[in-house]
Design a protein that fits this description.
single chain; 10 helices; elongated
Length: 359
């Protein structure tokens, strides 16, 4: 019996028939690619879903009751909720009627129910809502951290931040509209290719801008603290670390969208920002909780920025009578260089605003 050496069993095809009886061929590699794509993208969305659920539970359980009415807590909770719904809908789409084998290869969507169309469009809508909540949260945090800057500088930064955020939201809105039209008409629209890429790029630029402003301002504040002799690792260092993390890691996933075959890597960008923001708030809050409680709000603000740490030859039991202390200049005998007087109130105001936002 002769063997056909040119036959490759792994690339053979089989015939399927459309509803009107028209035959068409499907190869095994095409089926393998279809199954692999579905598995990879469902794993991707399921991992994001699990991480978001865990963090939302942690946020609800570990946040103090008095902090649950702050803007940052509300925005973090809303963002996590939007992200959970988004990923659930994405998983439903890729395990639903649109992704059945015959429907996919035959392009026959006649038996796809209306609910499947609703799931697809709603998933895109919640991605848009998630981006809006993230941009509002980032704007709020930048506004808080830049409170000590001069009015002109702060207004310029806020104007640029608003423009960058609106640019990202505008591209995402355009993608939402075109993607919904494509889903309803069952016709793939060519502009979706470049618009998807442009949306990913503008979203990444937006996140990078906000994190750069945030990290830069915190970096200067930490440098000033070191000049005052304050080296304790506290909330500001935590926010700086997570800010750098939010600046770098989402960019990596955004780049991976163009350099790897794993589908929908750019969807992790919004999830990472959604997770990192409440994570930094909880970490910073736990660090503040390690300090001994004090009924005086001014002392709490000083402790928030580490101004109650010991300096020079001062003992750990003696408070640092710095420029924010009421007794500064009266009973302090140590030679300490104070900050310029206009910065005193602003430095205190940063602590007040950060506490007001829920950090």
């Amino acid at each position: 019996m002769s063997t056909n050496t040119t036959f490759d069993p792994y690339s053979q095809s089989f015939t399927l028939f459309q509803e009107d009886g028209t035959p068409f061929n499907v190869t095994i590699p095409e089926v393998d690619d279809f199954i692999l794509y579905s598995l990879q993208i469902c794993i991707n969305y399921a991992a994001q879903l699990g991480a978001s659920i865990v963090l939302l539970l942690m946020l609800a359980l570990l946040t103090k009751p008095e902090k649950r009415t702050t803007p940052i807590f509300i925005l973090n909770s809303v963002s996590l909720g939007f992200n959970i719904i988004r990923n659930v809908l994405q998983c439903l789409y890729f395990t639903g009627p649109f992704n059945e084998t015959y429907t996919y290869f035959a392009g026959d969507f006649s038996r796809v129910p209306t609910s499947a169309y609703a799931i697809s469009i709603t998933a895109t809508l919640f991605t848009f809502l998630l981006l809006i909540s993230i941009e509002i949260s980032l704007c709020l945090q930048v506004q808080v951290v830049c409170v000590t800057l001069r009015d002109v500088t702060r207004q310029i930064i806020f104007a640029i931040s608003t423009a960058v955020a609106l640019m990202a939201i505008g591209f995402r809105l355009a993608l939402l509209v075109l993607n919904s039209q494509s889903t309803l008409s069952l016709i793939y629209l060519q502009p979706l290719d470049w618009l998807t890429s442009a949306t990913n790029i503008t979203t990444t630029i937006s996140i990078c801008w906000f994190c750069t402003v945030f990290v830069t301002k915190l970096g200067f504040a930490l440098q000033q603290r070191r000049k005052l002799g304050i080296h304790r690792f506290g909330p500001m260092q935590i926010l700086f670390v997570v800010g750098c993390q939010t600046l770098i890691i989402p960019v990596i996933f955004s780049i991976l969208e163009y350099t790897t075959q794993i589908p929908s890597m750019d969807s992790n960008v919004l999830t990472l920002v959604t997770i990192f923001t409440p994570l930094s708030a909880m970490w910073a809050a736990s660090s503040i909780g390690l300090d001994k409680p004090d009924p005086s709000p001014h002392v709490r603000h000083r402790k928030f920025f580490g101004l109650s740490s010991s300096v020079g030859n001062y003992s750990d039991k003696k408070a640092f009578d710095g420029p924010l202390s009421p007794s500064y200049g009266a009973s302090t005998q140590a030679s300490i260089s104070p900050l310029p007087s206009p910065a005193h109130d602003r430095f205190l105001q940063v602590g007040t605003d950060l506490e007001r936002q829920g950090f």
